[in-house]
UniProtKB/TrEMBL annotation:
<keyword id="KW-0808">Transferase</keyword>
<dbReference type="Pfam" id="PF00534">
    <property type="entry name" value="Glycos_transf_1"/>
</dbReference>
<dbReference type="GO" id="GO:0009103">
    <property type="term" value="P:lipopolysaccharide biosynthetic process"/>
</dbReference>
<dbReference type="GO" id="GO:0016757">
    <property type="term" value="F:glycosyltransferase activity"/>
</dbReference>
<feature type="domain" description="Glycosyl transferase family 1">
    <location>
        <begin position="172"/>
        <end position="313"/>
    </location>
</feature>
<dbReference type="InterPro" id="IPR001296">
    <property type="entry name" value="Glyco_trans_1"/>
</dbReference>
<protein>
    <submittedName>
        <fullName>Glycosyltransferase</fullName>
    </submittedName>
</protein>
Length: 521
């Protein structure tokens, strides 16, 4: 079950793939959706049909990636329920461009929490996504391998487009919807730096849906004019043959996306022999699997240098392509099918999954300090250490260090003698004074907790995301040198529970926060 079945969509492709496996293994399987593309009309049934026909022994596999408004229906539907989580893009990545999409992303994350009591097992397509499920308190969380129909990439290239793009220019390619979360604007910035600093005879090719008259589409075209890059092609939607032509003529594949639950085009580029350079946000490092070049920097000049090295260093290029081929070896159709069968074993056999919960033990106070480990000398980090020493049962929630992998075992780690619960950042944490990124899993953990919350740094992305949901039980602190909309928003929501941190008078902030939290507990 999913809200919409679309042709060519990554979620829709996985739904059809799983249905094919289930039928091959001898199980009756139907796809139910609220809406669908005309191309899918013979593959799908209306959601309302499920409740009429399903028995108590049915298993409902719920695919979640966007707001569906199906939670009440799922809650009362017959049969056992299993969740397949494709990840929900953080709403902040659409702010300023797509207000309705941002609201729908917020709604989808609310639904993720609302679905939890109704499912007995949950799957995700990356450890990054699975970590959020564990943080939300889902039981029996596992990672599914992502299935790809490699034969679909063997379409011969469109001759006309192949001839046009194969004119000797170094082609930098990006494939995907041109939406704010994909950061096509950063792709454009990197390409401009590459063209001006290293390779004048270069071309940028963007293949994928682009709403030219929408806010983000207009922004991209305006940015292109401002940057002054030459030979930038926004192709829009392309056919399979045209896409093959794009890959066949590409020198490098570039992704600067800020959020991927998996990232199929990265593997498609690997399959087609195109070296990949990708910003290591969300599940991108997992998708890359050590192949290609994953960068923790989003600085255009630094990433442009990687493109230049990839183009000019023939030996390195060969090594990268060979490593990418090796990465794909574990994703063969047979290997993936066997892993899916093993993951689904309890469901397929009719056995209920174990009921052990992944929820962490209750904390007396949630001390949210995203930079505690990555910026240990910051005033907020020193303040939270003092609070933790004086609040028995409190736990510190912080971002994992750069390069650390997501985990399905969320629990305390000793950092300088203090237990800390670490969560994966949505993007690599930059070095100070760059602002800290958000973290879907950390934010989810705060939301599902019932304990008082202390936000050490109300200007952080994490605090901005969780404050509307926890403001009645929250306190906050900010450095006196800071100002801006996020501080003002926190002041409006917290009032006297917002404390100013003067570096020379940190004991005052500790006393004020301790007094408020102690009275609440």
């Amino acid at each position: 079950m999913l809200p919409r079945l679309a042709w060519g969509d990554a979620v829709g492709n996985q739904v059809r793939y799983l249905q094919g496996l289930l039928r091959r293994w001898g199980h009756a399987s139907d796809i139910f959706a609220e809406t669908w593309d005309d191309a899918c009309k013979d593959q799908v049934r209306p959601v309302r049909d499920y409740a009429r026909e399903a028995g108590r022994d049915a298993v409902l596999v719920v695919h979640h990636s966007f707001e569906s408004r199906l939670v009440p229906f799922i809650a009362r539907a017959p049969g056992r329920k299993v969740l397949v989580y494709h990840n929900v893009t953080p709403a902040r990545l659409f702010e300023g461009f797509e207000r309705k999409v941002a609201a729908a992303c917020d709604g989808a994350r609310d639904e993720l929490l609302a679905l939890r009591p109704h499912v007995e097992r949950a799957f995700a397509y990356s450890r990054f996504s699975a970590e959020e499920l564990v943080a939300a308190g889902y039981r029996n969380v596992s990672v599914l391998p992502f299935a790809i129909d490699w034969k679909a990439f063997d379409t011969p290239p469109d001759p006309a487009l192949h001839a046009e793009l194969g004119d000797g220019c170094a082609n930098v390619l990006f494939v995907g919807r041109a939406v704010p979360s994909k950061k096509v604007d950063d792709v454009l910035r990197v390409f401009t730096a590459y063209q001006k600093l290293y390779q004048p005879m270069s071309r940028l090719v963007v293949a994928g849906y682009l709403h030219r008259d929408g806010a983000y589409g207009a922004y991209l075209h305006g940015l292109k004019d401002v940057l002054g890059a030459d030979r930038v092609r926004f192709l829009g939607r392309v056919s399979a043959a045209q896409l093959s032509a794009c890959f066949a003529t590409a020198t490098t594949y570039l992704s600067m996306s800020r959020h991927e639950g998996f990232g199929v085009p990265l593997l498609e580029a690997m399959y087609r022999g195109v070296p990949v350079v990708a910003y290591g946000a969300a599940a991108v490092p997992e998708t890359m699997g050590g192949a290609g070049l994953t960068t923790l920097s989003d600085d255009p000049a630094e990433v442009a240098e990687l493109l230049a090295v990839m183009e000019r260093n023939v030996a390195l290029r060969g090594q990268v392509i060979a490593a990418q081929r090796a990465r794909l070896a574990s994703l063969s159709q047979d290997a993936v099918a066997e892993q899916v069968r093993a993951a689904f074993e309890d469901m397929l056999s009719g056995r209920s999954a174990p009921s052990a919960s992944s929820e962490a033990s209750a904390a007396s106070v949630e001390l949210v300090c995203p930079g505690f480990t990555v910026r240990p000398d910051a005033p907020a980090s020193r303040l939270v250490r003092s609070l933790a020493e004086k609040l028995p049962g409190a736990r510190i929630l912080a971002l994992r260090p750069r390069g650390a992998e997501p985990s399905l075992e969320l629990g305390p780690e000793n950092v300088g003698g203090v237990p800390v619960w670490h969560f994966t950042a949505d993007q690599p944490p930059g070095r100070a004074p760059a602002s800290l990124p958000g973290s879907s899993s950390l934010e989810t953990a705060v939301r599902v907790s019932s304990a008082p919350v202390v936000l050490l740094g109300v200007d952080t992305e994490v605090a901005r995301a969780v404050l509307p949901h926890v403001k009645e039980r929250a306190w906050g602190a900010y450095e006196s040198s800071l100002s801006g909309p996020s501080i003002e928003q926190a002041r409006q929501q917290l009032g006297q529970r917002l404390v100013v941190l003067e570096p020379s008078r940190s004991a005052d902030a500790v006393r004020a926060l301790l007094g408020g939290v102690t009275r609440a507990t």
